[in-house]
Amino acid sequence: MLLEQAGIITRTSRGPAAAVEVERAPRGSSKVDQAWKILSNQETKRAYDLQRRAQELKQSWPVDAHICLDDMDWDDGEQAYRYGCRCGGEFVIGKEETEEEEESVVCCDTCSLSIEVKMAA
Ligand SMILES: [Zn+2]
């Protein structure tokens, strides 16, 4: 009777505990593992996207127009040359840059277009 009780006690106290233990471990670790995989995939994808975008910019700069500095409007207040983009934005190039460079690629301040400006007419 005592042994039987002891056996039951041992079985009931050990059994479920062990079962929980076994059940918990793989479920928990697989969740963590899955989350980690998704996270690392997103990170990898983002890094890949950024790298690819940087490469595209380098390889084929989307130059919309080639103009001369004369075509641009001088802004006395900003000490910069301005040129209207077709999107309604503006290409702005500082006076210093026009003095240092023979030609320069200027990005629109609103869209992704850019123009190549030749300083010498
Ligand atoms: Zn634009």
Structure notes:
This protein has 121 residues and is α+β, with helices and mostly antiparallel strands. The chain has helices spanning 2-59, 95-100, and strands at 63-68, 73-75, 80-84, 90-94, 103-107, 114-118. The chain has a three-stranded mixed beta sheet, with no helix packed on it. A three-stranded antiparallel beta sheet has the order 2-3-4. A hairpin with a 4-residue loop joins strand 2 (73-75) and strand 3. The radius of gyration is 34 Å and the shape is elongated. The mean pLDDT is 77. Zinc ion is lined by residues 85, 87, 89, 108, 110-111, 113.
**Continuous helix count:** 2
> Helical residue percent?
40-55%
Strand order of the largest sheet: 1-6-5
Instruction: Please give the radius of gyration in angstroms.
Output: 34 Å
Low-confidence stretches: none
N to C succession of SSEs: HEEEEHEE
- Characterize the overall form: elongated
What percent of residues are in strands? 15-25%
The end-to-end span amounts to: 110 Å
Number of strands: 6
Estimated structural class: alpha+beta
The biggest sheet amounts to: 3 strands, mixed
SSE inventory with pairings:
Elements: H1 2-59, E1 63-68, E2 73-75, E3 80-84, E4 90-94, H2 95-100, E5 103-107, E6 114-118
Parallel strand pairs: 1-6
Antiparallel strand pairs: 2-3, 3-4, 5-6
The structure holds zinc ion.
Throw out a few tags for this protein.
binds zinc ion, three-stranded mixed beta sheet, 24% strand, 2 helices, three-stranded antiparallel beta sheet, alpha+beta, DPH-type MB domain-containing protein, ATPase activator activity
